[in-house]
What we know:
With 384 residues, the chain is of the alpha/beta class.
Amino acid sequence: MFNFTFCNPTKIIFGKDQISSLATEIPRNKKILLTYGHGSIKKNGVYDQVKLALKDHVFFEFGGISPNPKYEQLLEALPIIKQNKIDFLLAVGGGSVVDGTKFIAAAVNFKGEPWELLENAKAPASALPIGCVLTLPATGSEMNCGSVISKTNSPDKLGFMHELLYPQFSILDPTTTFSLPPKQTANGIVDTFIHVTEQYLTYPVNAAIQDRVAEGILLTLIEEAPKVFADPNNYDVRANLMWCATCALNDFIGLGVPNDWATHWLGHEITARFGLDHGETLAIVLPSLLNVKREQKREKLLQYGERVWNITHGSDNEKIDKTIAKTREFFESIGIKTRFNDYNIDASLIPELIQQLQRHKMKAIGENQDIDLKQSELIYRGCV
Ligand code: NZQ
Ligand code: ZN
């Protein structure tokens, strides 16, 4: 196991009826900006619960944050914050709202063009405190310090991280996820699954706990996924999926082990260029990436195949083929297609994705930094 330092400061408040705890989690003297998306929270009752909990607080609102939150739109929050002397941000929604709010928190006192936070990984000198009420389990943004932001008029989708951006608290009430459309539930399951594989399917370093927890999350997703589509209002199933998503990207399983993340970087370019959902892009890229990197990932692929999919017979290569096929089948079984063709993306457009990777300095990625532009092209070609 590699050396590591671990400090995740986010307080998690999990379960039914927990939104009311906002009343005490945010000090009464704070001026709050409540941020949200395109209205799902107004339809499913979450907005009303938040408003009730904040009845003795002063709060302003910034709604309309888009999926794959947009830089230009988020900048519009900055004058509202300055004019009203806001000193606490409360994100209510999915990963896009949480990420957008983290960006606002870092941008508000940033000297210079805030895109520098993303493009050149400039560190923010300060950030406003953030709280979160999560309504879509997927990204882990509720318990990590990352954020992914896109531009409106150019194919740019970039991430940044800073320790100031951990939410102070996140409220995870699984009943808020009953209203999710099946497509978003499925996207969340795929995103969670691939957060795990990015930290687990690399090469062995004898990190037994991280491996077992990673396998536990994958097995839980595989077991719970059919149940949630058969019975979307099943509290226990929703609770398990919600906690899976948080545990998959709250630092823990990635400690002391190599991290890959190439599926994410290649996937972000697909969203930036073609607008596919984040989960869809990952389901397209991962099977092809595992195939291209089967030698480098051999040992962990075999371990994953055996422990998660019970694949024990055949040569190593046959076992790896079966393991990749099972992974693809799982994504397809929950309604997420895994080929460019399924989304009418023509192979002739792959060079544009490669140009984007180059522009975004993604020329040596993966756990061994050996996925160059040529290999990325090979991976994209395997997605057709
Ligand atoms: O905008 P509203 O009306 O809220 O509707 C949203 C949106 O249309 C809807 N939704 C959310 N909760 C709902 C609901 N609809 C009904 N009932 C509910 N309870 O779902 C749609 C998608 O929401 P979004 O927030 O975009 O989805 P997700 O949570 O999957 O977030 C995706 C974004 O997170 C980034 C992705 O790149 C993408 O931009 N990621 C962030 C990460 C991080 N910060 O660590 C890591 C991830 O790998 C990922 O890159
Ligand atoms: Zn993701």
